[in-house]
Structure formats: structure tokens, C-alpha cells
Amino acid sequence: MAFFQKQPLMRKVLYSLIPIYVFSFYLYGLRVLWIGFFVFGTGIFTEYVMEKQKKKPVSEAVLVTCSLLLLSLPPSIPWWIAVIGSFFGVFFAKEVYGGFGRNIFNPAIVGRLFIYISFPVAMTSKWLLPRVDASTSATPLDLLRNGQDVDLKNLFLGIRPGSIGESCIPLIIAAAIYLVLTKTASFRIIISTFSSATILTVLLKMTGIGPSPFAMLLSGSFLFVTVFMATDPVTAPKKKISQWIYGVIIGVCTVLIRNFSLFSEGTSFGVLIGNTFASLLDEISSKKVKQ
Q1: What is the spatial distance between Cα 202 and Cα 209, in angstroms, rounded to a whole number?
Q2: CB 124 within 8 A of CB 264
Q3: SS3 track for the chain
Q4: Where do the domains of the chain lie, and which CATH numbers do they carry?
Q5: Which of 281, 263, 251, 285 is nearest to 113 (CA)?
Q6: Which of 24, 87, 145, 290 has the greatest number of beta carbons closer than 10 A?
Q7: Chain segment 82-92, per-residue pLDDT in tens
């Protein structure tokens, strides 16, 4: 029996992440490999132990989970916190539900949020400046919340403090196009999430609340999470109308949390809330179709 269960859909996601990984090496060097060793090692081992009892192989989906979790972590994160995040995400958000295809929450999101809430200092205050050794800086989202300006060019190109793989907008857009064309990700979720967040940000800005829409959309993990995590085929709704509503829930929750809570980043919370309603949205959609 093969160690990994072959899953072509998950491999396409991994392919789309390769350019982002390459760019992360350019920014942070071997630090990415160091943290990745613990994230992948913990995630794969956790699923192996659980699936071995059922005589099943490890899913290739765990490689996607570990990849997304790694890329969503700060480059200066201590290795032991990365281990906790990887274990919690794979075990509590996936394996306790029965393994691949049965989980209702995105494992990478759950792992990230658990350590985000449990270790807020390590996850929010010690960001390495790209290409500058031993330096730290506030993230663009923190600067915007404090009313400061950000460099939009570097924000777009990804040369700014942030998580390991969330920053380079052109690469994320290219990945989105690839995933949509290969029918790996739902364009409805991407469009509805992006559009709803943009519209609400514009409305808030018109009332004097929050940063400029352009700066907000380019900051933090908004586009990264929208493209790779909101579109997770297991935890997202399956019906077309449900996917539109699901995206709106994520987009609206993200903007509200960013502007009115203590957390500067709200995208992960938005996806988790969206996951909660995914099955219900599909059920309601199915009943309307039957009527």
C-alpha cells in the first residue's frame, strides 16, 4: 500500500504554491526550510498515526494543509509553536472528524487561529523585514490601523513584513487563475469574497472608518486566504448559489473583524465562520431547488 493516497486535485494546489515557496526562499532564506521541517513532519506524522489504525494511507491533502499553514506563519515563529499549530490543525480539525472528506473546518485555518490566539505575541509582534537580517517591523495592517501610510508598490510586490507566503500579490493572482482554469478552486467564492470585502471597505471609508480599500485588499493574508483556504473543496459549500453567499459571509466578516475587533487580521476568522455555515447553505439551496 502506498504511503500517500493519490489525490490529483490536491496536487494541483501544491503546484500552484511552488512559485510562492520560491519567493519565500528569496525573502527569508533557509528559515523557511527550518520551520517547514517541523510543520510537515508533525502534520504527516499525526495523520499517519491516526490513519494507520484504520489501515488507510496518508492523504496528499495533509501536504496542502501543511503548506498553507507554513506559508501563513511569521518567518520568526519559534519551531515549537509551529509544531503545536500543525498538530492541532491536523488532529482536532481533521482526524477527530474521521479524516479527509469528513472535516467541516479547514485544518490549516484552525491550526493557524489556535496559535494566533494562544501565542499572540509570537504571531503578531515579531516580524522579520524581508531581505534585512535581524530586523523587525509592524505589518502593513498594523500600520494602517494606526493611521500610517504604507508603500503600495512594495505591498503589491510582496516586499514587506508579513507571513512567509502571503505577500506577493502577482503570484497569488497567477495561482488563482491556474486553480480556476483547472477547476480546482471555485471562482464564485473568490469573486464573492473579494467583491463583498471591497464594497464594505468602500462604504466604511466613506463614513470615515478604516483604511483605503486598495491598501486593505493588498495587506495581510486577505488574497492568500481567499484563493487557497476559502476555496477548500472539502469545507466550502458545493452548490453554486451557496458559494456566492459563502464568499459574502467571509468577505463581510473579514472587514468587520479587521475594523472593529482587537485583531488586525480577520480573514482566517471569516473563513472559519464561513465553514460553520457551509453545510447549512447547501441544505437550504437544495430545498429551494426541490420546491
Answers
A1: 9
A2: yes
A3: CCCEECCHHHHHHHHHHHHHHHHHHHHHCCHHHHHHHHHHHHHHHHHHHHHHCCCCCEECHHHHHHHHHHHCCCCCCCHHHHHHHHHHHHHHHCHHHCCCCCCCCCHHHHHHHHHHHHCHHHHHCCCECCCCCCCECCCHHHHHHCCCCCCHHHHHHCCCCCCCCCCCHHHHHHHHHHHHHCCCCCHHHHHHHHHHHHHHHHHHHHCCCCCCHHHHHHCCCHHHHHHHCCCCCCCCCCCHHHHHHHHHHHHHHHHHHHHHCCCCCCHHHHHHHHHHHHHHHHHHHHHHHHC
A4: 4-290 (1.10.3430)
A5: 263
A6: 24
A7: 999 999 999 99
Considering only residues 126 and 45, tell me which one the structure prediction assigns the higher pLDDT.
45
Per-residue pLDDT tens over the stretch 268-277: 999 999 999 9
pTM score, whole prediction:
0.93
CA dist 234 and 147 (Å) reads: 38
Phi-psi region of 56 (alpha: psi -120 to 50; beta: other; left: phi over 0): beta
Cα atoms found within 13 Å of the Cα of residue 38, Cβ hemisphere only: 14
